[in-house]
């Protein structure tokens, strides 16, 4: 159903195919070093950034050498307690069945002409359902990238939210999201069930669903008075529609499993414009420059350092970023979520607080020339240090493995049967993440991050293929007055793709974003203890 809301991807030729009459190339000559201006620019910017940070740290340390940090205690208000510990086992089953029925009716009407392997994709019958249950022939499907890696997780988040807002905890809600995904694979489509959909719909969808559930609840908590304002209810409903439906029907009857200690949160809403410094396909003779309006939302929830706040539940800490462009061909630029699934606080020290454990993550990253998406488990830590009075350093370091997909943003022409030919690659994906955020007196924030993904041929239907993708960013935000700030950010992305005897594919992009930011009540989010 969400497919109708997404614009079609433009047809610009295949990313891995050889042009007619073009011989296969066995030699893979890398472009000269001079063809990598973005990588060199990113490295140079990173070096000068660390020099600036070092000088700033030394100067502030000299200024405050005779005094220790004097952090102020953070209020720890007791909000309304869980109204009950009740949950319904029947309600989410009925609601999920109704949701899948409506989804099937929509697809049968809107996508009635979709055909694969000579069958209408959504014209399922009892016979086709029994055939799927009996044979269990699992494949990697051919749906467009944004359908598999964004719309399916949102479908999973909806089914997760129906269970979560019926009083269930994270793990049982995850199980019910996976059960709903399995039912759809068996009875919702006539094409063979896909392994990749089970991973993204159930697992990525649950991470997305829990983050949306908690943000929706936070909006209602922030409301003044006994009853939330109408605008708070609307925003909470937009964030988590399943929660809004059950809250409207049953009130607070099933609200449970959230801490009564308000988490430390920090968020920003950014509005601005992007300008590509360089978008380069090394197989093409020219570079491409692009300009788009941009909107981005970023939130950190449950930052470490607050006395009395524990990490007993999945996603008691999470970080989420969502970015949207005015581009008709690529409106969702990225959705990135990481959250602590199982972990605890580290030893508390005078100048530092932290958490560590097992993190779950869902990333959907789609620059102009290529894209990558993964669902992963990682070991890692998130910490904050008070370097000197008024200067805080926050950061995360994660390393793990997941299941990912990567490829170009082009589309391979359809076959005579109108069945899509997938233009991206699945595979087991080792990955790593490092972020750092320097906050000076709640006036200036300098942040940087680096992510790398290796989408291997293991667990893929194309064992010859692999993709290595790097994404780095650095940004500066300056608070002007109150909760208003202005900033600039530079994001660099590179892709190296290898597919057997085909020529290697190499792309790089660099984009500046100039934006106005509206800050949350904690502004840049340095935690005082």
Overview of this structure, please?
With 529 residues, this protein is of the alpha+beta class. The protein has eight helices and 15 strands. Strands 3-5-6-7-8-9-10-11-12-13-14-15 form a twelve-stranded antiparallel beta barrel. Helix 2 (91-110) runs antiparallel to helix 4 (145-164). The chain is globular and about 70 Å long. The protein starts with 36 loop residues before the first helix and ends in a 10-residue tail after the last strand.
Q: What is the end-to-end distance?
A: 47 Å
Low-confidence stretches: 1-35, 44-84, 411-420
Radius of gyration: 24 Å
SSE pattern, N- to C-terminal? HHEEHHHHHHEEEEEEEEEEEEE
Report the biggest beta sheet as strand number plus sense, adding barrel if it closes.
Answer: 12 strands, antiparallel, barrel
Structural class: alpha+beta
Mean pLDDT: 81
Number of helices: 8
Give the strand line-up of the largest sheet. 3-5-6-7-8-9-10-11-12-13-14-15
* Strand percent estimate: 25-35%
Number of strands: 15
Structural shape:
globular
Helix content: 25-40%
Question: What's the helix and strand layout?
Answer:
Blueprint: H1 37-63, H2 91-110, E1 115-116, E2 119-120, H3 126-135, H4 145-164, H5 170-187, H6 195-221, H7 230-239, H8 241-250, E3 265-281, E4 287-288, E5 291-301, E6 318-325, E7 332-345, E8 352-365, E9 370-388, E10 391-408, E11 424-440, E12 444-455, E13 465-481, E14 484-499, E15 505-519
Antiparallel strand pairs: 1-2, 3-4, 3-5, 3-15, 5-6, 6-7, 7-8, 8-9, 9-10, 10-11, 11-12, 12-13, 13-14, 14-15
Helix pairs in contact: 2-4, 4-5, 4-6, 4-8, 5-6, 6-7, 7-8
């Amino acid at each position: 159903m969400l497919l109708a809301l997404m614009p079609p991807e433009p047809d610009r030729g295949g990313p891995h195919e050889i042009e007619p009459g073009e011989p296969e190339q066995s030699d893979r000559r890398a472009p000269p070093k001079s063809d990598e201006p973005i990588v060199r620019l990113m490295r140079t910017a990173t070096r000068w950034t660390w020099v600036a940070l070092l000088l700033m740290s030394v100067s502030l340390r000299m200024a405050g050498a005779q005094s220790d940090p004097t952090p102020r205690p953070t209020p720890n208000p007791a909000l309304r307690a869980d109204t009950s510990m009740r949950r319904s086992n029947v309600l989410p089953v009925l609601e999920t069945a109704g949701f899948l029925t409506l989804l099937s009716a929509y697809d049968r009407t809107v996508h009635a002409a979709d055909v694969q392997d000579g069958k209408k994709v959504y014209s399922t019958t009892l016979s086709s359902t029994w055939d799927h249950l009996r044979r269990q022939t699992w494949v990697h499907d051919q749906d467009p990238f944004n359908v598999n890696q964004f719309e399916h997780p949102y479908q999973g988040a909806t089914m997760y939210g129906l269970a979560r807002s019926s009083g269930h905890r994270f793990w049982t809600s995850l199980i019910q999201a996976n059960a709903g995904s399995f039912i759809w694979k068996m009875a919702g489509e006539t094409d063979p069930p896909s392994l990749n959909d089970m991973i993204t719909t159930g697992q990525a969808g649950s991470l997305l669903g829990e983050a949306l559930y908690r943000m929706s609840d936070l909006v209602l908590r922030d409301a003044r008075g006994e009853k939330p304002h109408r605008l708070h209810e609307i925003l909470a409903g937009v964030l988590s529609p399943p929660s809004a439906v059950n809250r409207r029907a049953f009130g607070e009857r099933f609200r449970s499993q959230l801490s009564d200690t308000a988490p430390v949160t920090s968020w920003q809403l950014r509005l601005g414009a992007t300008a590509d410094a360089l978008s380069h396909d090394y197989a093409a003779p020219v570079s491409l420059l692009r300009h788009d309006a941009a909107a981005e939302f970023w939130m950190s929830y449950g930052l470490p350092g607050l006395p009395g706040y524990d990490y007993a539940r999945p996603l008691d800490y999470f970080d989420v970023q969502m970015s949207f462009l005015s581009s008709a061909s690529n409106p969702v630029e990225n959705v990135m979520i990481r959250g602590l699934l199982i972990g605890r606080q580290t030893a508390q020290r005078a100048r530092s607080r932290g958490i560590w454990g097992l993190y779950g993550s869902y990333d959907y990253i789609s620059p102009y020339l290529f894209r990558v998406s993964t669902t992963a488990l990682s070991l890692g830590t998130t910490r904050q240090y008070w370097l000197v009075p008024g200067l805080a350093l926050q950061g995360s370091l994660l390393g793990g493995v997941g299941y990912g997909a990567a490829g170009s943003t082009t589309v391979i022409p359809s076959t005579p049967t109108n069945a899509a030919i997938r233009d991206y690659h699945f595979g087991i994906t080792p990955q790593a993440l490092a972020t750092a955020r320097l906050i000076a007196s709640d006036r200036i924030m300098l942040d940087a991050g680096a992510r790398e993904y290796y989408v291997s041929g293991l667990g893929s239907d194309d064992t010859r293929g692999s993709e290595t993708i790097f994404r780095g960013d650095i940004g500066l935000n300056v608070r002007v007055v109150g909760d208003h700030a202005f900033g600039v950010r530079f994001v660099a992305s590179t892709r190296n793709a290898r597919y057997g005897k085909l020529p290697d594919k190499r792309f790089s992009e660099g984009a500046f974003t100039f934006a106005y930011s509206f800050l949350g009540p904690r502004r840049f989010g340095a935690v005082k203890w």
